[in-house]
């Protein structure tokens, strides 16, 4: 219904999750490049928290694949080779269509209202050239499509994969011609789900993920060759 306000439950963040959110933002926006050491004492003081919640934040980010905890070096921002990124997107292309097939038949009118709102915001952010929101909205859209799957372990894995590939998705959209394609493909997937064409939607989703992954891997390999 036009003008309907989508209600979202707001859960107050803990110090650890708030710190993880800020560190994640800095990593995804490129403030902290791959290989950078995250100095616990300095950053904990900067964020105004003690070392215990800061350590918990690092553990959360390690689970997402954004941080590596190394024995003699502490926490460093994770780096990925083109081959590792390719594997991540191939894994997503296997997992997410299966989740969509489980979830799509159970999506509600409220879910579609929320999906429509995300699609509108996504289009607005693409046109205003605001890459800071592209990855988050992409993750939110995909997660919402799968929310009715009733497969908590698969959903948890998909959530980790989406968060791990967020910065790569943003890079792919920013540095390639993927923005218009992503907008079109997202709309097609939602439209097919709404029409009950779940198998077609899952097929479109798989191709959507693989195409984005292929464009990104090509970009990473070009950059790799340029620096050798």
Short synopsis of the structure:
This protein has 228 residues and is mainly alpha-helical.
Q: Please, could you describe this protein's structure?
A:
A three-stranded antiparallel beta sheet has the order 1-3-2. The protein has ten helices and three strands; from the N terminus they run H-E-H-H-E-E-H-H-H-H-H-H-H. The protein has helices at 15-28, 40-47, 51-63, 82-103, 109-127, 131-146, 152-164, 166-175, 178-194, 198-226; strands at residues 37-38, 67-70, 74-77. It folds into two domains: 15-77, Orthogonal Bundle (Arc Repressor Mutant, subunit A), CATH 1.10.10; 82-226, GntR ligand-binding domain-like (Four Helix Bundle (Hemerythrin (Met), subunit A), Up-down Bundle). It has 228 residues and is mainly α. A hairpin with a 3-residue loop joins strand 2 and strand 3 (74-77). Helix 5 packs antiparallel against helix 6 and helix 6 crosses helix 8. The model is unreliable at 1-11 (pLDDT under 50). The N and C termini lie far apart (55 Å). This is GntR family transcriptional regulator. It comes from Taklimakanibacter albus.
């Amino acid at each position: 219904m036009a003008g309907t306000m989508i209600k979202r439950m707001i859960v107050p963040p803990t110090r650890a999750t708030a710190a993880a959110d800020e560190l994640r933002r800095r990593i995804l926006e490129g403030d902290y490049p791959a290989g950078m050491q995250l100095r616990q004492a300095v950053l904990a003081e900067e964020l105004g928290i003690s070392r215990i919640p800061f350590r918990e934040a690092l553990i959360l980010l390690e689970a997402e694949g954004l941080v590596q905890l190394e024995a003699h070096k502490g926490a460093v921002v994770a780096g990925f080779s083109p081959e590792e990124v390719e594997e991540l997107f191939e894994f997503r292309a296997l997992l997410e269509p299966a989740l969509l097939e489980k979830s799509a038949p159970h999506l509600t009118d409220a879910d579609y209202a929320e999906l429509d709102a995300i699609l509108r915001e996504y289009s607005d952010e693409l046109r205003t050239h605001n890459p800071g929101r592209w990855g988050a909205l992409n993750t939110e859209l995909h997660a919402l499509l799968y929310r009715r799957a009733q497969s908590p372990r698969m959903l948890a894995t998909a959530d980790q994969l989406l968060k791990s590939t967020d910065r790569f998705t943003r890079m792919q959209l920013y540095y390639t011609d993927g923005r218009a394609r992503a907008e079109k493909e997202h709309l097609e997937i939602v439209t097919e789900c709404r029409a009950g064409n779940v198998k077609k939607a899952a097929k479109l989703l798989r191709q959507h993920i693989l195409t984005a992954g292929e464009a990104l891997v090509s970009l990473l390999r070009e950059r790799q060759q340029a620096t050798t």
